[in-house]
UniProtKB/TrEMBL annotation:
Residues 1-65 form the HTH lacI-type domain. GO terms for molecular function: DNA-binding transcription factor activity; transcription cis-regulatory region binding. InterPro entries: Cro/C1-type_HTH, HTH_LacI, Lambda_DNA-bd_dom_sf, Peripla_BP/Lac1_sug-bd_dom, Peripla_BP_I. SMART domains: HTH_LACI. Keywords: DNA-binding, Transcription, Transcription regulation. SUPFAM superfamilies: lambda repressor-like DNA-binding domains, Periplasmic binding protein-like I. The keyword Secreted does not apply. This is LacI family transcriptional regulator.
Amino acid sequence: MKLREISEMSGISITTISRMLKNPNSVKESTRLKLANALESNGIEEYVNLDYIRKLILIIPNLNNSFYLDLFNGIIYTVQNKNVPFEIYLSNESIEEEIKIFSRIKNDSGVGVIWIPASEKRDNLPYESDTENIIAIVDRDLNFDSIHIKGLSDNFSAAKQATDLLIEGGGKNPIIITGSPDLSNARERRDGFLESIKNHFLDENINRVYYGDFSDIQSGYNIVKNLLKDKIAFDSILAANQILAIGILKALNEANLSIPKDVSIIVFDKLTKMEVEGLQISEVIFPAFDIGANTSKVLLEQKSPASLKQIYNYSGRFYLRGSENKE
């Protein structure tokens, strides 16, 4: 179809349409929507690309665990199929670094950002609230109006179910080793664990929650070593992420404690064969690849920063291999 015909159909000048086809973000949102509606009403929208998002950016704390790697691969799958430019930035769990990253892209137009916040303990966002970029967050939750899309994991339900399995499998004194309470996924997994403790009428006055660092293997190792040194009793562990679990398993092995006979365990995230050293460890895995692929797909479908808020919730998948069952 010729530009003249599109102009007559939509009531928009040929010059404006030409500029819009080169860069949809160079004209007012109302003009883009007017043309999009005209194309759709005539059944030819698929022949003209008016997508607002022309580049995707991932801002992520690190690529050290399986969830982040699978999320990254899901995004790559989408951007390669759509032939969209893609950039990745590592924040290294630093809010200051996030501010620097967002400042680099603040003048870019047509950018979709998939962001895993370094921390949720903050009063301000690392970008201007009137940004024209479209922001999606995954894995961690923030409640700000300028966040358009959320891909959230149902951590509470998964942790509750995992703890149910540990207790029903013979665990009488379970503990959870989780991440910083500044992170929503760490808090939600803790709260799901405690709900199961309450429902099974176990002693709620005993300290069963231990906080480590989701990005530090040594923190999981040190927690278990200190518990053993101080003779604090436990017979089952909910490890709230893969990195913590590696340290936990190392400490249990050094203490000659067998799994699941001495200590039963369920781990959030996917462990590699090298990390489990032949052990059959039960896991709770969120579909990170699907989260990455779907979040990037939804971002690329957005027509303007004024798009309606969208929230997608994902359930954990259980892979039970016997480490949860002492009986």
